[in-house]
Design goal:
Blueprint: H1 2-24, E1 26-27, H2 30-40, H3 42-56, E2 68-85, E3 91-113, H4 117-183, H5 189-223, E4 232-233, H6 246-256, H7 258-278, E5 284-297, E6 305-318, H8 326-393, H9 398-433
Parallel strand pairs: 1-4
Antiparallel strand pairs: 2-3, 3-5, 5-6
């Protein structure tokens, strides 16, 4: 009896310490969780880097519109034995004579026309920048959805922890009552043992739920890219938007879904790529100019030193006449890629509509289940209160008490699950529609 009382007091002290520690923990709001994740999440940072690269690539120089200017220097030296026979028969010879050639200057090359390919390329770079922005938007939307889902999973688990806490409190009362009844001879030892087994079972369930809750905390910390060992609580409020309609969501998805926008941009990029390929049929015209200095020195010859400097300029033009049918093949492939991009757009659109229809049906079902389980929980609580009052008066069996206790716990768990699933459905619908906000 003393050992049992000591164990009960130890558990009570442990629960009090846990509750005090819980009160001291950080209260993490959804707004703070999303803000930190947006600032630190690795996937968002990587996608932002890709978007910045696409932004940097939008330049006229990258599209080939601007000239290339380069400076050149060439300096060659020789050591050689030379022999020269002149027209009058005189022979001149030099052993290991030195010679040198020095050329340096600056030159400019500029393609001024290439069948409008440079303009198509510049427009394509702008579309690729938009595609980078859309991919970043998709990453942000996905990660914010992950944070919100995990946040409300923590809310659900806190609700379930309270249900298991209630079960343990009732089981502890049953153990105490059964022990007292046994000591005064009004109950058999079997009743005490049954109450103790139920108490241990409820304790196991609570420990498992605490483990699940802690693992979810770690996952949230990982999404926020902070110390995974940080412990925190979240507010218990869970509000569900019950006003969503499929028609509105479909219209929003057609305008704002990032995957659909990316498919449209990919089709536009393919069209511009075909335009660049077709430009290869037209002439390429370029201009060049430069200023050069040269000096040549030799040990033997009519002129041992010559120098020169001046301006050079010119025009180049080329027209493809026959390329082994490669031009036609490239244009055919470009048109096929346009068709593939169109098919991908239609596929994404079909997939989004299917996701919306399925998710919306699940959302409606979960909304109905929330109302049903809320009523079930209220009834189960009333039944439990009546049962416990009868148990205190000794007019009901322990089996009936346990049934009422389990009914309440199960009803509370089902209610929190229904709320969580309905909230997940709301988040999924808004994520597909591209309208996910806090």
């Amino acid at each position: 009896m003393l050992r049992y009382t000591f164990g009960l007091l130890s558990l009570l002290l442990s629960l009090l310490l846990t509750a005090r520690e819980s009160q001291a923990q950080e209260v993490l709001t959804l707004e703070e969780a999303v803000r930190v994740a947006l600032e630190r999440n690795y996937d968002i940072k990587l996608s932002a880097n890709d978007e910045r690269i696409a932004e940097n690539n939008v330049s006229r120089g990258n599209a080939g519109m601007l000239p290339n200017v380069s400076a050149n220097l060439t300096n060659n030296n020789t050591l050689q034995n030379s022999s020269q026979t002149r027209a009058d028969g005189q022979v001149n010879e030099v052993s290991w004579g030195q010679g040198s050639s020095l050329n340096y200057g600056i030159g400019l090359n500029w393609t001024v026309f290439n069948g409008f390919a440079m303009f198509a390329r510049y427009e394509q770079l702008q579309e690729l920048e938009k595609l980078g922005e859309t991919n970043l938007q998709l990453t942000i939307l996905t990660r914010v959805g992950d944070v919100m889902s995990t946040f409300y999973e923590l809310v659900q688990q806190q609700h379930q922890l309270r249900a298991y806490d209630t079960a343990i409190s009732l089981s502890r009362l049953r153990v105490t009552t059964a022990q007292n009844r046994f000591e005064i001879g009004k109950a058999a030892r079997l009743e005490v043992l049954n109450a103790q087994v139920d108490y241990n079972t409820d304790t196991t369930n609570l420990l498992r739920q605490q483990e699940l809750y802690r693992n979810t905390q770690i996952r949230m910390n990982e999404l926020m890219v902070r110390d995974v060992n940080i412990r925190f609580r979240v507010p218990d409020q869970l509000t569900i938007d019950e006003q969503l309609t499929l028609e509105t969501l479909s219209a929003q998805a057609a305008q704002q879904n990032p995957s659909l926008k990316a498919a449209i941009l990919n089709r536009r990029v393919a069209e511009l790529d075909a335009k660049i390929v077709r430009a290869s049929r037209l002439p390429v015209v370029g201009v060049n100019t430069g200023y050069n200095f040269n000096r040549n020195r030799s040990a033997l010859g009519f002129s041992t030193l010559s120098t020169g400097n001046g301006l050079t300029y010119g025009v180049t033009a080329s027209v493809p006449i026959f390329t082994g049918f490669n031009q036609r093949r490239n244009e055919q492939n470009a048109n096929i890629l346009i068709n593939s991009a169109q098919l991908q757009f239609e596929q994404v659109n079909q997939n989004i509509n299917a996701q919306l229809a399925s998710a919306y049906q699940t959302y409606l079902t979960n909304i109905s289940l929330v109302r049903l389980e809320e009523n079930n929980q209220r009834i189960a609580r009333q039944n439990l209160d009546i049962t416990m009052e009868k148990y205190r008066l000794g007019s009901i069996t322990t089996v009936e008490v346990r049934d009422a206790q389990l009914n309440y716990v199960n009803a509370a768990v089902r209610y929190s699950n229904a709320q969580y699933l309905a909230k997940l459905g709301e988040i999924a619908l808004k994520e597909i529609a591209g309208t996910l906000t806090l």
